[in-house]
Every structure is written in structure tokens, then in C-alpha cells.
Design a protein that fits this description.
With 218 residues, the chain is α+β, with helices and mostly antiparallel strands. 16% of the residues lie in helices and 24% in strands. The protein contains 4 helices and 10 strands. It has a 5-stranded mixed β-sheet, with no helix packed on it. β3 and β4 form a beta hairpin. The radius of gyration is 19 Å and the shape is globular.
């Protein structure tokens, strides 16, 4: 089992905390191309395996070898395979000398701060640290990968789009109940250069929240 950090914005952190987000999609750095050896299939290079890997190799049941898809997950997906863990990187801050053991998290500040802490400063007065600079010991959310697959972005189902963190209150999105259209709007706002119109190949990572136990907090 391996652990890797992954950045989530505030909206998605809140969705994870609320139990509304159990999937995340990340653009494949090297986009698959039509296979030259398997008609109708697509492939992409794996630096680790030093060979081309077919999309179909990542699908359970496509090989007579048991758990073959897990082997390709482990050697191809940069975010890990089923059973690996992801610690969430989010915007955060240390409370300071007055509360050295307390970390602050922008996503749901100050709601997450225990009630016995008094005189909590307003969010705009806190010197927040960007998520990319969060160390492992400061992370409060740990995810376990339950499945990994590859698909074209626009092929996401309405149900899976909802698992990307469909809001409990969709009114800021025009009250939209079509989860696919909601997710398209969300994605295009984050990745304008790789929008639904471009329809890139993406890693689909399904996960569940697990206790945040740190074997090596350093």
C-alpha cells in the first residue's frame, strides 16, 4: 500500500467531508491514441513498464490472468491503484503560538475549529498556505482508492457525475438537477484548456474516506 498527496479545492474538500464526493477525474498527461495492434482499442506508453498499455488492460475481466487490471493500475496510474491511499492537500494554516497543536483549514473555517478555542480571527486575517505546500502531517483527510479506470471525459454517466460532489444545494448552479450538466460546468471552470469540448482521456479514481492514521508523520 502506498500513499500519495492530491490537491483538492475548497468546494471539493467540503463535498468529501459531506460524503457527496467519492470520485475524482484527473487528466492523463499522455493522451491515448488508436492502437496499432488491437482494432478499436486505444493505448498509451507506460514509462514504468517501458511498453505501450491498452485501455482494455485496465478493465476487470478482460484478461485470463486474475487481477490483471490491478497490475496495470499499479504500473500505469500515477495516483495509485485499488488499496492505495491518497492524503488530501488543501489550503491550510497553523493557528500559531497560542494554539500550537491546532491546524486551520480554509474549506470549512471556522466551523471545524473546536468550540473551546476563543477569539477565532476572521478568515481574511489568516495567512493561508496554498494546498500544494501542505505537508503530510498537516493533512486531516485520508482516502482509500477502491477502483481506477480510464475513460473519455464526456462519457461520464449522470450517476457518476453526481459522485463528483453534486451540491446539496444546487441553487448557485441555477438549481440544476442534471448532474452531468452540473459537472460539465464545474470541470470547464477548472480546466478551460481541457474542457468537455476537448473531451480528454481521464483517470477515474473512486475512493472512500478512512481513518487518518499516519505511520510516519515526518
Amino acid at each position: 500500500m502506498k500513499e500519495r498527496g492530491m490537491i483538492f479545492n475548497g468546494e471539493m474538500v467540503r463535498a468529501i467531508l459531506d460524503g457527496r464526493k467519492t470520485q475524482t477525474r484527473r487528466i492523463m498527461k499522455i493522451q491515448p491514441e488508436p492502437s496499432k495492434s488491437r482494432s478499436g482499442d486505444f493505448w498509451f506508453p507506460s514509462k514504468k513498464l517501458e511498453s505501450m498499455v491498452h485501455i482494455s488492460d485496465l478493465v476487470p475481466g478482460n484478461s485470463p490472468i486474475a487481477d490483471c487490471h490491478l497490475f496495470f493500475q499499479e504500473h500505469c496510474c500515477p495516483f495509485g491503484a485499488a488499496g492505495d491511499r491518497i492524503w488530501v492537500r488543501e489550503t491550510w494554516a497553523e493557528a500559531g503560538a497560542g494554539a500550537p497543536e491546532l491546524q486551520l483549514y480554509r474549506a470549512n473555517y471556522p466551523a471545524h475549529v473546536p468550540s473551546h478555542y476563543e477569539n477565532v480571527p476572521p478568515a481574511e486575517e489568516i495567512r493561508w498556505t496554498p494546498s500544494i505546500h501542505m505537508p503530510r502531517w498537516a493533512s486531516r483527510i485520508l482516502l482509500e482508492i477502491t477502483d481506477v479506470r480510464v475513460e473519455k471525459l464526456a462519457s461520464v454517466s449522470d450517476e457518476d457525475a453526481g459522485e463528483e460532489g453534486y451540491p446539496a444545494d444546487p441553487s448557485p448552479y441555477g438549481g440544476r438537477t442534471d448532474k452531468w450538466l452540473w459537472f460539465r460546468q464545474l470541470w470547464d471552470g477548472i480546466y478551460p484548456e481541457q474542457s468537455f469540448k476537448h473531451n480528454p482521456w481521464v483517470w477515474v479514481i473512486e475512493f472512500k474516506v478512512v481513518p487518518n492514521v499516519q505511520d510516519n508523520p515526518a
